Amino acid sequence: MAGVAIENWKETIRDPKIECMSRDEMNALQSERLVKQVKNVYENVEFYRRKMDELGVEPGDIRGIEDIHKLPFTTKEDLRDNYPFGLLAVPKEKIARVQGTSGTTGKLTLASYTQKDVDVWGECVARGLTMAGLNAADRIHVCYGYGLFTGGMGLDLGAQALGAMAIPMSSGNTKRQLMCMEDFGATAFACTPSYALYLAEAAQEAGIVDRLQIKASINGAEPWTDEMRKKIESIFHINSFDIYGLCEITGPGVAMDCIHHKGLHVYEDYFYPEVLNPADQSACADGETGELVFTTLAKEGMPLIRYRTKDLTSIEHDTCECGRTLPRIQKFTGRTDDMKVIRGVNVFPTQVETALLSMGGGVAPHYMLIVDRENNLDVLTVMVEVDEKYFSDEIRKLDALKSKVGAVLKQALGVSVRVKLVEPKTIQRSEGKAKRVIDNRDL
Ligand code: DLL
After folding, report:
1. Ligand 1: which of 346, 347, 348, 378 to mutate, judged by most atoms within 8 Å of the beta carbon?
2. How far apart are CA 189 and CA 169, in angstroms?
3. CATH number of the domain bearing residue 356
4. I need a surface site. Which of 91, 168, 251, 345 has the fewest CB within 10 A?
5. What pLDDT was estimated at residue 433?
6. pLDDT at 64
């Protein structure tokens, strides 16, 4: 076990009845909730009534969780087509909050929550915080962004549900983050893993690690490795935990790993996970990699049936050493699409293309994204082909174009990029699917 020892691990189970429930009991609970949810979406969401009618499935055909495979899938495109409120199962007046994905262009993916959904969200994050050894006496420094992105709000709701102190720092300004961490005596912090490592090294450089009272960090929103976890743990002398989620399902708090780090426990009483073979959507056996698909069993505002996350992982249902029976998903091996998470922000190569085309000249839509990790932070370089004439022009014009491309891409993607302008026909053309991304991060 890496990190530091925390005594009384049994006390880190917030809801033993659910978290350690037998498989039969859990399946009974899931069945009861699924039957209700399917009836609910059939009666209240036109999109689902139509989809089920097309498949010839009626609510009465779903008698338990074992019938889930009869139900239609939902995709990100379906969410976009029904943007912003087309998938609500309740009147708009009952929506207490909306949140979005971390991407910043085009139609964003929006999720709507009733107050009960918000409470469940906070409860799930609180289970994770408890799993990290935290309780009402803790002070949780949140350096995820607050806003439509679910990171800041999700951890904040979790701290509230736990009765702990939330320190809503939001992201940026590392010096100030460290100052507040020290001054307020934060006992835990939450941010992307890459920023956690950056903070760790900054704290080390500033010589303040020993003055901090941090004992745990909660990190997710982007893929990271066990090696990276151990590095963060060893610098801060803490335990670090991986937290997973997506705005469509509930934001952070869909799954989180325990001190044994054998995969992330899924809160399957609320979010039923399936791992499916991407080729034919048949169910994968435990241990086999496939696409993670979720059904929200109790969500009121925008319930989703068999939502395809495009995240690739495998699942294990055996009881964990920590005593929890909640299944564990393994660290993600990639996605079925070409989305990349850069410093916690979801980036699609097509966003680059759209932005370049919107510039109306000077650059060609031939581009390549190169992702590296420098000083533990993601660096995105975009190579863009430029009209011939720019290379024969003065260097000044080329520099101006470079700045313009950088500004347009930052605006479009929500992350800063390094721009490398190259001569026409430099970027390799492909005969099949264009390879638009080279990811040099060892994830
Ligand atoms: O990233 C929610 C979140 C915030 C999770 C804070 C954890 C902490 P979205 O912006 O909707 O939501 O992006 C969801 O990010 O489908 C994954 O591809 C990726 N992702 C999220 N958590 C992890 C993780 C938030 N722990 C998308 N490991 C997901 C790997 C992750 N990838």
Report:
1. 346
2. 10
3. 3.30.300.30
4. 91
5. 55
6. 98
